[in-house]
Amino acid sequence: MDPVPALEEPLKKVLGPPTAKVMAEHLGLHTVGDLLHHYPRRYEERGQLTHLADLPMDEHVTVVAQVADARLHTFASARAPRGKGQRLEVTITDGSGRLQLVFFGNGVHKPHKDLLPGTRAMFSGKVSLFNRRLQLAHPAYELLRGDTEETVETWAGALIPIYPATAKLESWKIGKAIQTVLPSAREAVDPLPDSLREGRGLLPLPEALLKIHRPQTKADIDDARARLKWDEAFVLQVALARRRHADAQLPAVPRRPAPDGLLSAFDDRLPFTLTEGQQKVSKEIFDDLATEHPMHRLLQGEVGSGKTMVALRAMLAVVDSGGQAAMLAPTEVLAQQHHRSVVEMMGELAEGGMLGGVEHATKVVLLTGSMGAAGRRQALLDLVTGEAGIVIGTHALIEDKVQFHDLGLVVVDEQHRFGVEQRDALRGKGKQPPHLLVMTATPIPRTVAMTVFGDLETSVLDQLPAGRSPIASHVVPAADKPHFLDRAWQRVREEAEGGHQAYVVCPRIGDEEDGPGKAKKKSSEDEAEKRPPLAVLDVADQLAGGPLQGLEVEVLHGRMPPDDKDAVMRRFAAGDTDVLVATTVIEVGVNVPNATAMVIMDADRFGVSQLHQLRGRVGRGSAPGLCLLVTEMPEASPARQRLDAVAATLDGFELSRIDLEQRREGDVLGQAQSGARSSLRVLAVIEDEEVIAEAREEAAQVVASDPELAAYPGLRTALDALLDEEREQYLEKG
């Protein structure tokens, strides 16, 4: 017998090129180890069959059932005009329901011979509806004859594993391939330190792999999954712990505010007191800034919780200590807005070097890609001489020619919009690594923060400042109840007549050259999905000439020249415009307290977190906010349920859980960072909170005692597999 192939062995050597090709192309599996880590999605029990009654439409399913009857029909068709066309109809049952299988043409002969009444088999195919009955057309099948040696061996044990499969490769074929490579599982190198594994009563890795693929009992499955979850959580947390450990070794200049400097002058001017949350988070940040290693902190806060105020005080503390602070915003509109609000909040303290400036004042400059040459030259000069203590800009800040006098703090607004390389490039502009504060208004559940931003310490602002108003949210079912939409426009008119303003948000601009085709989704929930998404330019025209006639309606979208965008925003902020019809360019940071209503068109085309972000633009003043989610989706559709969830709660953390559950997590490290395959196979970020938290503690201990992992060769191997080069860089720069 050949020696057992090691886990690195390419599948084409073991299974043959045709099968290996399908596995590589459709499932991303290349080696024996990859295949062993392709775990069953669920298990069928011999005596207890799948409920045929619960089959999902349009999905690829595998069922185990018994043939109830089989009939061969002949019929006339264009291809067989003399009535010689053949159709085999087989009815299968599992006690809970019945399902029709249908085979045509030359494909009827083999199933007609195989699928006799009473035969048990596994069937696999796509569920469709024909004459109001569920059916599988031309399903693949595998007979379960308990008597022949080979089948008994293949389906040993009471549990039949059902693997994530594709139309090109049925579950049982994957099962057979795994059967071939399963002996190699004994060579799997265990990444968990023995003390950890034994202390927690976890199975050794080879045993866990055998049990997940060939369980004898349900307890086997539970034990195997518990062990494999730990692998994923622990290896990932070790990668992040090493990152944090390496960061902690870097030198940084401690930045402490001067006793009677810029920060205290600013605090004295504040017309309100900071919330308890703002004070607590500020203390965490100031403690970090005072150390000799760079701060890496994630500041999460609900829309309107006062993150900008906390970030500004941190920047002032750094300026106080002789350094400079840079704030990076994702769009020009947002950079301009931040610049305006920072200058307003600071007043004469932002006029350093100018006539009206006071003692301790500094200069606050704006740097964006579309600035005129003279303004840009002056801004660059102010940065290199240190005249400007604070700079706010877009990724134009990252360009090579931007030089700082002494960069001490980088604040990144809306983390998910910035590439890691960009953050890294800006970090490289300090003489020593600057401190880093990342702000996000997208609430991130604790476990995701520990997993995705695991190299950042987290601060959460969960109190809204006094004076913020509640926001009422309602779903407007435009297709079922068109009069609801009329009422929505009436409400917008009422808000405008009461001296307030409104936003109308659309998914698309409307001047795209390549037409709306790109924006379509693939699901066919309804006719609403088939039409292109509503566009800003069309909707603005319809409203101005129809339901909102007589009101001042303007448009704002990302492809307008920056000066035009800024002018539109200024008019809206000044109250000259009643209704702003915009794309999601207003999603982050736009602050107009007088805007009280928002209508989101085709709301089902936006994600849960995005809807929550958008909604946060209203109710920022003393008047209550109103958000109307317009959709044409039918009541029972998942899209509609998602909107109902958004309308039902203002708790961003609750919504981010729903969002994550609905998106089935995907790969929390992001597709781009890990190729197409998800790095998490059994770990569920939301449900396995405890495992992740414990794995983080264990990982921190292991790395603290042995940063190079010299004593853990198995763990090093697993890390190398997780951190292929691309992902290594991602974590490096994270």
What topology emerges from the helices and strands here?
Layout: H1 11-15, H2 17-27, H3 32-36, E1 42-45, E2 60-75, E3 85-93, E4 98-104, H4 109-114, E5 120-130, E6 133-137, E7 140-143, H5 149-154, E8 159-162, H6 171-181, H7 194-199, H8 205-213, H9 218-249, H10 262-269, H11 276-289, E9 296-301, H12 307-320, E10 324-328, H13 332-346, E11 363-367, H14 373-385, E12 388-393, E13 407-413, H15 420-427, E14 435-440, H16 446-452, E15 457-461, E16 471-477, H17 482-497, E17 501-505, H18 527-530, H19 536-545, E18 553-556, H20 562-574, E19 579-582, E20 595-600, H21 608-615, E21 625-631, H22 638-648, H23 652-662, H24 689-705, H25 713-722, H26 725-733
Helix pairs in contact: 8-9, 9-24, 9-25, 11-12, 16-24
- What low-confidence regions span 5 or more consecutive residues with pLDDT below 50? 1-5, 148-157, 513-529, 664-678, 728-734
> What do the pLDDT scores average to?
80
| Radius of gyration over all CA atoms, rounded | 31 Å
Tell me which oligomeric state these chains represent.
single chain
How many angstroms separate the termini?
Answer: 48 Å
The dominant shape is globular
What's the total helix number? 26
Give the number of DSSP strands.
21
What fraction strand?
15-25%
Based on secondary structure, the structural category is alpha/beta
Spatial order of the strands in the main sheet? 11-12-10-13-14-9-15
Helix content: 25-40%
Largest sheet: 7 strands, parallel
